[in-house]
Amino acid sequence: MGIGYVVGVIGGAILAHAAYATIQYRAVLKITEEEFTRPPMDVMMELLLGLALCMWAGLAVPAKFLSVVPHSDENRIVSLPANLDFMIFNHRGRALPSDPDLKLKT
């Protein structure tokens, strides 16, 4: 495990702690019946530090890039419909019933 992963985990832990501190601060404000305007300055600094660490880790730990093979079978279009203006892709909506009785009547 490289240093980028460790910095990312630390940044995530700092962000989680800042969220927990904000929740606790709002609970205290509810007890004292004060209005919430913004988190305290220490929580804001914690948020910025966690954000910076997570962004640095995201840029420092890149994934391995895979080259695109233009002549592979995965990149081929097997057949195109006759009407190229409207194409139907395989998605979750195909599992829904398409019975005309289920449509709303106006």
Short description:
This is Membrane magnesium transporter. The protein is built from two helices and no strands. The chain has helices at 3-32, 41-60.
Can you describe this structure?
The protein contains 2 helices and no strands. It is mainly α and 106 residues long. It has a domain of 59 residues. α1 runs antiparallel to α2. One of its GO terms (molecular function) is inorganic cation transmembrane transporter activity. Keywords: Endoplasmic reticulum, Membrane, Transmembrane, Transmembrane helix. Its main location: endoplasmic reticulum. It is found in: Endoplasmic reticulum membrane.
SSE series = HH
Low-confidence parts, pLDDT < 50 over ≥5 residues? none
Structural class call reads: mainly alpha
Q: Span from first to last CA?
A: 61 Å
What is the number of helical segments per DSSP (H or I, 4+ residues)? 2
- CA radius of gyration: 26 Å
Q: If you average the pLDDT, what whole number results? A: 80
Biggest β-sheet: count, sense, barrel? none
Tell me the number of strands.
0
Strand content range: under 5%
The general outline is: flat
